[in-house]
Inverse folding.
């Protein structure tokens, strides 16, 4: 549990680093990067057995098992999510894979949001359903009763994501926690899009939370990693076994160092991401070439009230529907100078992409249609640059679309 006398801002700056300040010879103010793959042991007949070394007491054996830099990061991730145990993984995908593997067995049933990160959806379909004989149901979880209706006697795991990508849809974490609890199923939430700063699912009743630290937690688009946080001791033990021994997919020391460094400004970045995203959402909402804007901060978002209830802010990711065809969308995207055409989200720089042709291209046409992913749906990860420059850049995009229609009309 997060110590009640410390705010999230203070934890973001320093949680997990105290041992280096007070315990190291040099008194480092920031975590050193421990690259060593193995650590000198005190002696052969020491009390220390491989199974119960205590990293909190400065005991380390081998870096796959635990490493001082990764351990500092794991302490901070736990503090920020308000959980007991955190584990850092080599990617968000590894974090989600390992969590699912720690929960389900062949023959179990799993209920997931249909609007999941495309990679997670493929992981559940192509690994868990196809290879591991897990029965997977995808449901529209914006309506809580669809989750309740999908639960069976075999349901062991409920996996949600909120807000989702690229539909920016929400599900009600507290209500789904109650349903999962009633069914004795483990309830996990991918909290990547909101970040620990704007949403803490454990406080709302989730059993386990995952992140792609690649996105907001690291925040600088220079590291791929993942995290899992839970209060459940038994689940944490299974997860640690898989992370350290069963799968061996822990985060590297260097990436741990980068995420620790990125986290120090999580609160500052998130506030600016949100300020810019709100301004852009309002600008797009008023634009005559835009037929829809999906951003939970807009009162017109169908789940704006739920966002106000379960989130502390609306985040920095939005999507919008450009009026026109795929060539208009291409003209728009290719004319931008401040936004970079790239997949991924959550970095300080603004990124923009076309889900139908990029992130969600691997889905079938029917799946895309079901999720409302049209050929002109554009996703924006709003960075922390100057608001004025970002809006001027989008204006440049709309000018390119106008010029294109003028040429097409022959005038
Ligand atoms: C990026 C992302 C993932 C996958 O994380 P990687 O670090 O790319 O493996 C999972 N969930 C969400 C919501 C994401 O945005």
């Amino acid at each position: 549990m997060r110590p009640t006398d410390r705010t999230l801002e203070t934890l973001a700056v320093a949680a997990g680093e105290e041992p280096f300040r007070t315990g190291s010879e040099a008194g480092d103010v920031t975590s050193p990067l421990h690259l060593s793959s193995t650590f000198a042991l005190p002696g052969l007949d020491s009390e220390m057995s491989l199974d119960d070394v205590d990293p909190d007491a400065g005991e380390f054996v081998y870096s796959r098992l635990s490493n001082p830099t990764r351990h500092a990061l794991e302490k901070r991730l736990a503090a920020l999510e308000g959980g007991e145990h955190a584990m850092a993984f080599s990617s968000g995908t590894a974090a989600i894979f390992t969590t699912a593997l720690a929960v389900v067995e062949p023959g179990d049933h799993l209920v997931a949001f249909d609007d999941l990160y495309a990679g997670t959806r493929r992981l559940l379909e192509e690994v868990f359903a196809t290879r591991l004989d897990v029965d997977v149901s995808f449901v529209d979880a914006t309506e809580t009763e669809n989750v309740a209706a999908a639960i069976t006697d075999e349901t062991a795991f409920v996996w949600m994501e909120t807000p989702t990508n690229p539909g920016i849809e929400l599900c009600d974490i507290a209500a789904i926690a109650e349903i999962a609890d009633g069914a004795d199923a483990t309830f996990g939430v991918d909290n990547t899009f909101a970040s620990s700063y704007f949403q803490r699912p454990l406080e709302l009743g989730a059993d386990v939370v995952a992140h792609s630290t690649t996105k907001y937690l690291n925040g600088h688009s220079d590291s791929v990693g993942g995290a899992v946080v839970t209060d459940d001791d038994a689940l944490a033990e299974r997860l640690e076994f898989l992370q350290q021994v069963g799968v061996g997919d822990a985060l590297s020391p260097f990436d741990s160092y980068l995420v620790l460094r990125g986290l120090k400004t999580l609160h500052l970045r998130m506030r600016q991401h949100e300020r810019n995203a709100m301004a852009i959402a309002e600008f797009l909402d008023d634009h005559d070439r835009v037929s829809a804007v999906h951003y939970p901060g807009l009162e017109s978002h169908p789940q704006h009230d739920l966002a106000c209830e379960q989130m502390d802010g609306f985040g920095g990711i939005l999507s919008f529907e450009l009026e026109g065809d795929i060539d208009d969308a291409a003209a728009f995207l290719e004319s931008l100078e401040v936004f970079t055409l790239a997949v991924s989200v959550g970095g300080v720089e603004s990124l923009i992409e076309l889900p139908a042709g990029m992130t969600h291209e691997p889905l079938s046409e029917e799946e895309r249609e079901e999720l409302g992913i049209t050929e002109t749906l554009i996703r924006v990860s709003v960075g922390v640059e100057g608001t004025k420059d970002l809006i001027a850049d989008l204006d440049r995009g709309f000018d390119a679309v106008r010029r294109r229609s003028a040429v097409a009309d022959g005038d």
